[in-house]
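Review this today:
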Amino acid sequence: MRFGYWMPVFGGWLRNVPDEKMEASWAYVKRLAQRSEEIGFDCSLIAELNLNDIKGVEANSLDAWSTAAALAAVTEKIELMVAVRPTFHLPALLAKQAANIDHISGGRLTLNVVSSWWADEARKYGVSFEQHDDRYARTSEWLDVVDGVWSQDHFSYSGKYYRVEDNVLEPKPVSKPRPCIYAGGESPAAKDLIAEKCDAYLMHGDPPERVGEKISDLRMRRAKHSKLAPMKFGVAGYAIVRETEREAQDEVKRITDVQQSAAGYANYQQWLAGTQLEQRVSLEDYSVSNRGLRSGLVGTAEQVAERVATFEKAGVELLLLQFSPQLEEMERFASTVIAKEKPALKH
């Protein structure tokens, strides 16, 4: 199992806790990234939104791509998975930026391709917002162009959404055959696209048995494209490790004290409206982003380690975790859970 985490570019993950003691600042994310690779974390996902959908649109949020470039220069080992939304980036230009950051990092950049969901954010930043399946049609072309300019010389492309002529992109990425492309989604359009054109599938939080069903489904879809390498799989989770199970459950009660008047509630309603999900989402799910509590990574270190093992048996290779407060809880998780998986690490 590889252990990753969401970089707190929004100042936290809890919609009902205003101050999580993890400010959205360069100083904090730099400290977090450098420490995380020392204590055994393998990957960090840097989310991309120009507005803060968790703490409210007036709150601070960091830009994903400039943050990723800066982190590439001050870290040594950790994978930097940067979210990118095709509606906000022309593909050939983004591919150029990504290749450059890949060189800065020594081949540690990967992409998490996300089809936009937030209509208000798009309007505020002057970006067109399309219907769900149209966004995936655009993303399909976007992926074709990115892969083409990364892998070919003098690449040309003409589609409904994008056109490039005789493209020159040098230097090409360090990573071969290309930086890993992750994506997530639960609609049929999303899953078909991911199976055909991406390298790894990221899932919202769910129990291992449900995740296992999703993995089986994506593997079948992937099998239709026989020349492609096997798909990799990751899942989101919110982790709470305590000395006793009761202490862990007390923390769950604290963070799921739902307040529908919280600053991020309207944004959450837009996410529901703009996303096709396979399951209904509860107000408790609203409290923690990405359905993280459904993964069940809550309890004593032994209980959480057992849950991790169950995910691994289901086919999960990467856990993308959220914690609050991030640095302190990551230290706890590393010393109690990761240490069981990687006993040679020194914390």
Observations:
- The first strand starts at residue 2 and ends at 6.
- The chain has a mean pLDDT of 90.
- The chain has twelve helices and twelve strands.
